[in-house]
From TrEMBL:
The lineage of its organism: Bacteria, Bacillati, Actinomycetota, Actinomycetes, Streptosporangiales. This is DUF2384 domain-containing protein. It comes from Acrocarpospora corrugata.
Amino acid sequence: MPSRKLARYLMQHLREIHDALDAETWARVAALLDRIAVEADQDAEADWYDLLDLIQFSLPRGHEIRRAISAETAGGTRGAPADTEISATLTVLRAMLPDLAEIAGDTDVDDDIKEVRERLRAAPSVSLEELRARGADPDAAHLLRLPGPGGVTVPAFQFGPDGAELPAVRTVNLLLAAGRDPWGAAHWWLRGNALLGDAPARLVADHPDDVIEAAQALREEY
């Protein structure tokens, strides 16, 4: 099957995959999916193939999902230089990616982190399609992008009234490594900050230098 159909198939059977894997392997699968959801396509492509390998060789021999992956990868398509399918594949996967904590029945996620995720998902956001329509690059490493049941969204506080990305947001997201740890960056943006007296997301448009200084102070702590 074409790789985009394989992505759809895997997302439709993700709970079955979870149930067939041990906890350690599922954690690795979830980490790859989290990265694919927010990475630039060139990085996400490698993780997509790593995901296929991990699922394929971790499922029992003869498992239907393992056979489906084997049929897709038997031709040696991994890393093909002219893979015109990959963008469509990643789009399908990101659009269908469910809440992984819900799939796993994870009740141990910190309540504060859950609250931050819910607040950010509920906050105004910009879709990847809207960004492309503006001529912006939705895969830019410095943008904070969050996966969710409806696909990847980009929190709107990162942009000014004219729709342009705020320069301070770019600086802070790079300091926070938002591309590698979007939820950690979201946690910082939305929580009250002792140095600022408010959540950085509320202040970045009017007090960009103060927000950058607070992010630099956080980095110096580590």
